[in-house]
Amino acid sequence: MVIFLSFQLQKSVLPSGEEHLGILWRIARLLEPFGLPVQHWYPPAPTRKKSLAHAAFDRNGPTPVALEMLRLQDAKDAMTNYRRTGVWSGTENGRSGAFSVSVSSNPDLPTCLLYVQLKDVAALDNARNAQRLMLGLLDIWPLAADIEVGPLMYYTEHRVFPKRPGAGWMLYLPTAIAHDKVPEAAELVPVMDGDRQKGTIIVSVSDAAFSIGNPDHVKIANAIEIRLADQDLLPR
């Protein structure tokens, strides 16, 4: 399963390294209830051994070693308007994953992108748990333009519009959408801000995890995308 989240920054300023890693730590905390302990994420490094030598996080936030590694990487890259950093679970076998946050402070289009890839995290095959994770991400980024959740291959090979978000298993859009607007959806979950609905999670399949091996799942997701695009609800 992969998760994409994107939004436009309100100010064209990069976060500090400590702020950037602090965001990653908050994401790690969100993943902890699904069997991925916060202390078992590791920073990028030239070799596997160097990466696994120090955890990226502890219970209180990013570790001093991870902060220093990012500081050194910033100095090496010498970039002032872009940074991408992430962590991984230290293994590619069994329950595992990686996630990163990219930030561009280009004044023409300052943006932030989250990419998460998870493998064999059985708890997130449950639709309610996946929605819980999406809502947690919206607590971190309340102005998210979209969140896509589903198999990576759906987005690379099966979505209808290459330059628009894919419905996949679930798609969050920051607008209130009534069911008669997207009758193909299995469920529409309102996302509230106080007593106001600020967005909607569109669920293509609610009784199972989405699978590209199931032609009906792909057909439903494609139909949702077409329906949203026809009503100018699917952003470019």
Structure description:
The chain has about 240 residues and is α+β, with helices and mostly antiparallel strands. Helices cover about 30% and strands about 25% of the residues. It contains 6 helices and 10 strands. α1 packs antiparallel against α4 (about 125-140). The longest helix is centred in the C-terminal third of the chain and has 16 residues, at about 215-230. The radius of gyration is 18 Å and the shape is globular. It starts with a strand and ends in a 6-residue tail after the last helix.
Question: Gist?
Answer:
By secondary structure, this protein is α+β, with helices and mostly antiparallel strands. It is built from 6 helices and 10 strands; from the N terminus they run βααββαβββαβαβββα. The longest helix has 16 residues, at 215-230.
How are the elements arranged and paired?
Blueprint: E1 2-8, H1 17-31, H2 48-52, E2 57-58, E3 61-62, H3 64-77, E4 82-88, E5 96-104, E6 111-119, H4 127-140, E7 146-150, H5 152-158, E8 170-173, E9 187-193, E10 196-203, H6 215-230
Antiparallel strand pairs: 1-6, 1-7, 2-3, 4-5, 5-6, 7-8, 8-10, 9-10
